[in-house]
Amino acid sequence: MGHTSLEKIIALQKKTPHIRNLCILAHVDHGKTTLADCLVASNGIISSRLAGKLRYLDSREDEQIRGITMKSSAISLHYTTGGNEYLINLIDSPGHVDFSSEVSTAVRLCDGAIVVVDAVEGVCPQTQVVLRQAWLENIRPVLVINKIDRLIVELKLTSQEAYTHLQKILEQVNAVTGSLFTSKVLEERAEKDAEAQSSCTENGSGDQVYDWSAGLEETDDSDLYFSPDRGNVVFASAIDGWGFSIHQFAEMYSQKMGIRSSVLLKTLWGDFYLNAKAKKIMKGAQSKGKKPLFVQLVLDNIWSMYDAVVTRRDKEKVEKMVTSLGLKVMSRDLRHSDPKVLLSAICSQWLPVSQAVLSMVCEKLPSPAEISAERVEKLMSVGARRFDSLPEQTQELKKAFLDCSADETAPVIVFVSKMFAVDSKALPQNKQRPLTQEEIAQRREQARQRHAERQAANQSAENALCAQTEALSVKTAVEEDNKEHFVAFARVYSGVLRKGQKVFVLGPKYDPSLALRALPEGCSAADVLPSVPHMACCTVDSLYLLMGRELEELDEVPTGNVLGIGGMEEFILKSATISTSPSCPPFTPLNFEATPIVRVAVEPKHPSEMPKLVRGMRLLNQADPCAEVLIQETGEHVLVTAGEVHLQRCLDDLRERFAKIEISASKPIIPFRETVIRPPKVDMVNEDMGKQQKVAVIHQVKEEQTKYPEGVQVDSTGLVTLTTPNKMATVGVRAIPLPEEVTRLLEDNVELIRTMEQFSLFAWEDKTLDINQKILENIQEFKVKLESNLQGRKWRGAVERIWAFGPRRCGPNILLNSVEGYRRPSVWQCLEREKETEKAEIRDFDNSIASGFQLATLSGPMCEEPLMGVCFSVETWDMKLSAPLAQQDSIDEDSQTAEPNIDNQNESSDTHETNAAGSSVDCYGPFSGQLIAAMKEACRYAFQAKPQRLMAAMYTCEIMATAEVLGRVYAVLSKREGRVLQEEMKEGTDMFIIKAVLPVAESFGFADEIRKRTSGLASPQLVFSHWEVISSDPFWVPTTEEEYLHFGEKADSSNQALKYMNAVRRRKGLYVEEKIVEHAEKQRTLSKNK
Amino acid sequence: MSIFTPTNQIRLTNVAVVRMKKGGKRFEIACYKNKVMSWRSGAEKDLDEVLQTNTVFVNVSKGQVAKKDDLSSAFGTEDLTEICKQILAKGELQVSDRERQSQLEQMFRDIATIVAEKCVNPETKRPYTVSLIERAMKDIHFSVKANKSTKQQALEVIKQLQQSIQIQRAHMRLRFVLPARDGKRLKEKLRPLIKTVENEDFDEQLEMVCLIDPGCFRDIDELIRCETKGKGTLERFSTLSEDV
Predict the structure, then answer these.
(1) Separation of alpha carbons B193 and B208, rounded Å
(2) Residue B43 is nearest to which of A614, A904, A1074, comparing CB atoms?
(3) Which of A37, A98, A763, A1072 has CA 20 to 30 A from A163's CA?
């Protein structure tokens, strides 16, 4: 078949019933791209000799090097059968788990799918996944069993064995489809049951008749399954270029043997054999030990062909076969030393795979016009919304979908499933075309003129300027060239999309009912319209026909076709719906099988290239449907990808296409929190504390962990008293652990606390801030909840006495005012505005205490991470202040309050002293600053006087796994300190759903490990859930006899908390209690015998 | 008569000498390399891992052992271990290569952490990560000085970094209220110190919310306090990096 011209394809695009949109799906390495190659070769785009080796649709360099497909790419093919011409829009998809998002984007645009299964490996995890994806998108699959040659050449099966093997594979595939079907039926059943039950309770009828049949019997599922006699299975070897369906052989033999082809079709696959004497086809080949018809008529022929060509290299026999088949083989191929060449030369003529596959596709897969009503409803109803609940105009659009008409009047509906980046050189506008004669002449003329001009200009002084501008224009052109262009990968569902047309671009969150209310009746995208959220108007810049690695420009694309749209990068982030009607709903979001879970922090090698990286990451975010890009509060740029391979590709993309700089990826920074707990009752070996005799510590003298400097007194109950350096003030602070519920409550109500804080701030300035009633109610509710959670003697009246929240005035820590005789306005004063209780006074330096608390909670003593769930109760606060000093300092109090960090950092501490020198000479700096520092230190010591613990961020992790890999999942989880919460079986399948929690610190590489260990049968999903106290004490050393026995003297083996703490301290450059050399003797460098 | 044969000669290798002068005499002890600092910081708790031998010398390299009389007169005890501990704690030593290296590394990290805390990327208004700052510091060939405080060095680094990457001190948000009389006069003086004025309200008194460079805080503070004679108030909200 010759090269198909562009005109032909354009003509075919208009015949909707003759279009087939399909994608090739399979497990990795089952031969999708090779099969695609064969199909491409049939159109003369590549040579059939190269088919299978070139991998034409793998256009990226790393795809070629690694030998796996990483993106879905489309190509339009032309196929003629029985006088009918078909346009086949073929989308090749990747098989690797990491790129299953690409599969989702491909599946959405298709009506049918070719599922490829390796004849040797059978059904693999990804095969199940793609079958499920096809099922969820309601598209019809056909099956290609590929690599049959491996059964012959590698496994050396006999044709009989091969037949049973193929049968088994077919059964496996059908089992997967069957389970999908049953789970769907069961789901529907459950829904129905639930409805029935609710109606039952309403009726209150006593006698319930329960129907035990699961509904499976009633639903017909026979048309779902794959079977060769139904014509939806092709046996092939794409690498050798052959493939067949039973259909072909039935035709062939019906002529030869005089049996009706319809009979043959039914009997060629299955337990039938040919009774040579009676010339009859009989049932029960297996029981009678006869060769089944399929083996005798089909497989044996192929086997003997391989035997002759590959194994024995029998030239005469080959020639005989070739002539009997009526083929012509070039003598060059016959003489070739590699038998494979000859084989593919013969086979590709005898049983061309493209013929078999394409004819099956055209016959069995639906055209865009045959889109089912069910699928349309599914596409149009976002999320849990039911189709019926959509606005009326939207429901009318369903008709447009079903009609699929290319009329002028039909509304245009296009779905963009992904954006992909194209080098501007690859765009057809910029492509070099052979010049026509006139053009050449014209250019010559221009060149001549320019030459003349230059000569003229040479004399004038202007030439320098001229050259400069010219250089400039060249430069801008170059810059333009480097720009990445984005092309939207899309399909037209209705109407005709034209170049230059004005359309609405609807984001995934767009709501048609909102827009319909906002927009006038019958408006179009060309009018000036009020802005509606998630909707934009734009003009279609250019349309492309996707031809693998090339693009062809088009002027219009009628309904039912897959296309590329240029110039949309401003409007579309990842996916969108394009329509001329504002009532069009956005399509349901793509079903992603793999959610992105592998997180890395990305940084440029050279810090000055930061802006380039930011830009590059933005582009990457747009170009990849599955990659996520986040900027953390810490300034980290985090890239989240679906897996290691996907990550590699994203990094390569960043390096070579989007950012064009050197980058490095590293573990993201893991946050921790510090907290205190109540003294534990049992020790590390679960013995009661206190009963044990503390053994004499052998080597290490267990010292007090913190040596308190002078001026600090700590009593046995954990009350820390500290005096400022000038001996003017003394504060007594105690740290108390907050109940878990309170911490959670504080965390959830950050916004409320912030509002309250703002109010107090204004009140302090004698102003009022208006807070609306709703928020006030919320605050009241919050207060009540706090009170209910802070019960007991210790917490009596605590809620009223709250002084501040921290850190940053709204965190999960509390400062409590327990100073006797000090009544300060409470933080709840916004609630009591009306009552106007007696004015409570604010002591001088009140703010300093609060600031000290803020600073202490911002970075704890363990590893300078924020505190969480700690309550600092100020129990004493004595001031021996002479009045004038107080006067003087209270003036600058507010200036000093919150600036101790400046006050340390500032170079000019001397200037300050001169200020203070005015009234009293204080060598320790301003008093308020001292008080802040003292308060901060007091908090820190109070914290250290209690049992300290680290808190780790936890992920909840949901893992879907089959029963056989369950053990390995558990192994990986426990190795990484994970904890399984629950495990249950998914109804109707053999999948288990495991819920576990996993520390964020252990999650790096988790997804990859679990996939490797379970050969891809388990896929985790991680979501941040909460903070959890790590039960082990980072400062713990063994003290009792049992602990020595259990952990040894040093006990440095298993302390997870210590490990985390030291890692953070090391990262921050804090002091880590660690020996530089572990064993002094082992660093001997000089020779002994000198 | 004692015979010096190689058999009763103990050769020490891998020695770090700690010296101390006390009572007019010099005492030395022989320790292992890279261990003395760990002992002093408390990380190493096993004395045998620090001392090669608990003999106190007058000169380690010559093998001259200190006399008992000298020891008891200088330290007031004859317990060698006790004396060794005293010398270990207070004596002077040559800091060995790895000790110095780890110390400098730690300071380098500390400086980078301080810089990262204080600065933001002016484009995104977000802080830089510590590792990026470290790399930038290496790029400008910054070398740590062991005898200067890390905070001081961090401030120097920020100035140097501003030439190579986009970096800025995180702005400080201030609000001050000035009496109307002084307001006009002071405003002119304050103008050069203020980066951006976010909010300005001038009726009975001048109220301003503005962003400043933290380095100017002292100047502004002083200016307001002196010029208004304590009538103006100044309040710091937060650094900008915390807000975004």
Answers:
(1) 13
(2) A1074
(3) A37
Strand pairing report for A233-237 and A140-146: parallel
Can you tell me the distance from the alpha carbon of A921 to that of A624, in angstroms, rounded to the nearest whole number? 65
pLDDT at B154: 92
The two three-digit tokens of residue A797, written as one number: 């009246």
Please work out, in degrees rounded to the nearest 5, the angle formed at the alpha carbon of residue A22 by the alpha carbons of A21 and A24: 160
pLDDT at site A917:
36
Tokens for A175, please give them.
């089992």
Residues 654-673, chain A, touching B (beta carbon < 8 A): 666, 669
What contacts A449, CB < 8 A, 6 or more positions away?
none
Shortest distance between the Cα of B36 and any Cα of chain A, in A, equals 10
Say if the Cβ atoms of A635 and B126 lie within 8 Å: yes
- Chain-centroid distance of CA A1071 in Å reads 38
For B159-204, write each residue's pLDDT tens digit: 898 888 888 888 777 777 777 777 777 777 777 777 777 777 776 6
At B4, which helix (H) or strand (E)? none
Note whether B181 contacts A: Cβ–Cβ < 8 A.
no
Degrees (nearest 5) of the Cα angle A50, A52, A54? 55
- Inter-chain residue contact A1079 with B49, CB threshold 8 Å: yes
- The DSSP line for A108-139 is HT-SEEEEEEETTTBS-HHHHHHHHHHHHTT-
> Would an 8 Å CB–CB cutoff place B235 in contact with chain A?
yes
CA dihedral B207, B212, B214, B218 (to 10 degrees): -50
CB contact under 8 A, B43 and A1075: yes
Q: Is B34 touching A (CB cutoff 8 A)?
A: yes
Model pTM above 0.80 = no
CA of A192 vs chain B CAs: smallest distance (Å): 50
> Which CB contacts under 8 angstroms, 24+ apart, belong to B225-230?
B225/A891, B225/A892, B225/A895, B225/A915, B227/B182, B227/B185, B227/B186, B227/B189, B228/B178, B228/B179, B228/B182, B228/B186, B230/A891
Bridge-based pairing of strands A719-723 and A497-498 is unpaired
Cα dihedral A358→A359→A363→A367 (10° resolution): 30
Q: How far apart are the CA of A599 and the nearest CA of chain B, in angstroms?
A: 16
Average pLDDT, chain B: 82
Determine contact: B43 vs chain A, CB below 8 A.
Answer: yes
Ranges in chain A, pLDDT < 70 = 1-4, 196-222, 382-386, 426, 429-438, 456-483, 519-531, 593-594, 683-711, 763-771, 832-843, 881-926, 987-989, 1048-1054, 1084-1090
Contact (CB<8Å) A1084/B129: no
**pLDDT at A216 (0 to 100):** 53
Q: Distance between alpha carbon A705 and the CA centroid of its chain, in Å?
A: 45
What's the token pair of residue A421?
């980046």
d(CA A405, CA A401): 8
Nearest CA in chain A to B42: A1073
Contact of A225 with A178, CB cutoff 8 Å: yes
- What is this model's ipTM? 0.74
Name the closest residue on chain A to residue B214, using Cα atoms: A902
